[in-house]
Design brief:
mainly alpha, globular
């Protein structure tokens, strides 16, 4: 029986696919093939394109189409199409979190693209290989891929691609707790990004610098960099970065002495409100839901329990509307905490009962998924 794809699983598959296929644009468009079009080559390309569209709805059929394309490409000697087919299978496995298989197919595609001097695709694949190796805990292999990708971008005078690869390399250094080298690398990236007016990349570097100082226990400096990242993420409307930056600042706000770590109440509140405006304007419901929970945490830290309760009820409505059971569980637990902190015993008991019911539902759903 084919596995039932849950909304959570579909989300991660879709996220993985969006990430993998978005790398096509890192350097610009892929080189145009200067070959005469023949029916067989067109048929192979159509099979690959069709598989990409099918993947989120019919995974088995998508794999079969790509495998058929590989067989036909090998038989006809069409190496660019063969490379794309391997790359597509790598993407599929990457989005399914099957990183060993992803590495296998990415390596096959990489070898062909290098022989074709398709350096844009070489860069894209090496970035994905680096991320795959991280998930396999093969950090030295990941470092090699990111460093080679950065060098390829540098030789091709692709500043944005070079900086992104260097940020990925610095993130890996942070994971390995090589903070000094990571800081040096990120400061250089930030300066180059600012000089090239690449604000979004500068913001990514600033967020990672905040991570370094937080891990060192220097919350004042960490929040300074998180603040820079917040401002730039708002300016560029980088919703994922804005969400995770706001989350880190809210977490620090709720658990540390604000006066000693450089946090400004009003600046944080304004950032959360501005983020809400951006997410509403762009109809980004997932981000809006996260932001609403962050605002509730901010209100709770201020002791403004009525406002926190209102924000959490808004979050609960949104999560119910969009069928996000995990967020319903999280929100209901926070509602219980708010009622308990504000000595509303009756409401706290009711919220706790609702939390337990949602938690049980989530557990049953996961067990049912495992049994499929």
């Amino acid at each position: 029986m084919q596995p039932v794809l849950t909304w959570t699983y579909r989300f991660f598959m879709l996220f993985g696919m969006l990430f993998a296929f978005s790398t096509y644009g890192q350097f610009g468009s892929i080189e145009k093939r200067k070959t005469t079009v023949d029916p067989e080559r067109l048929r192979i390309q159509t099979e690959i394109d069709s598989a990409k569209k099918l993947f989120t709805t019919d995974r088995i059929a998508a794999f079969e189409k790509v495998e058929a394309a590989i067989t036909a490409a090998v038989k006809s000697g069409y190496r660019p199409e063969l490379a794309e087919a391997y790359y597509t299978l790598g993407n599929f496995n990457f989005s399914m979190l099957e990183y060993n298989s992803a590495v296998l197919y990415f390596d096959r595609a990489l070898s062909i693209y290098k022989s074709l001097s398709s350096w844009e695709m070489v860069y894209n694949i090496q970035m994905l290989l680096g991320k795959s190796y991280i998930n396999l805990a093969e950090y030295n292999m990941a470092q090699t891929q990111f460093d080679e990708a950065a060098l390829i971008a540098l030789k091709g005078k692709r500043t944005e691609g070079n900086l992104k690869a260097r940020i990925a390399s610095a993130q890996l250094l942070i994971m390995k707790e090589n903070f000094d080298l990571a800081e040096e690398q990120l400061n250089a990236v930030r300066a180059e990004a600012q000089a090239a007016n690449l604000t979004e990349i500068a913001a990514e570097a600033e967020y990672e610098l905040g991570e370094i100082f937080e891990k060192r226990g220097d919350f004042y400096q960490a929040n300074s960099y998180f603040g820079y990242a917040q401002d730039n993420a708002l300016q560029t409307r980088n919703n994922p970065l804005l969400l995770k930056t706001n989350q880190r600042v809210v977490e620090n706000y709720t658990k540390t002495d604000n006066e000693n770590i450089g946090l400004d109440d009003q600046k944080l509140f304004n950032s959360l409100n501005l983020a809400e405006t951006v997410f509403l304007d762009e109809k980004d419901t997932v981000a809006l839901l996260e932001n609403t929970i962050q605002k509730a945490d901010y209100y709770a830290a201020q002791g403004e329990y009525n406002e926190a309760e209102q924000a959490l009820n808004n979050s609960l409505d949104l999560s119910e509307q969009y069928g996000d059971l995990d967020k319903q569980v999280t929100t209901q637990k926070k509602l219980y905490d708010i009622y308990a902190q504000s000595n509303q015993s009756k409401e706290a008991m009711e919220a706790y009962d609702n939390y337990q019911m949602l938690l049980d539902s989530a557990k049953r759903l996961k067990e049912a998924e495992k049994g499929q």
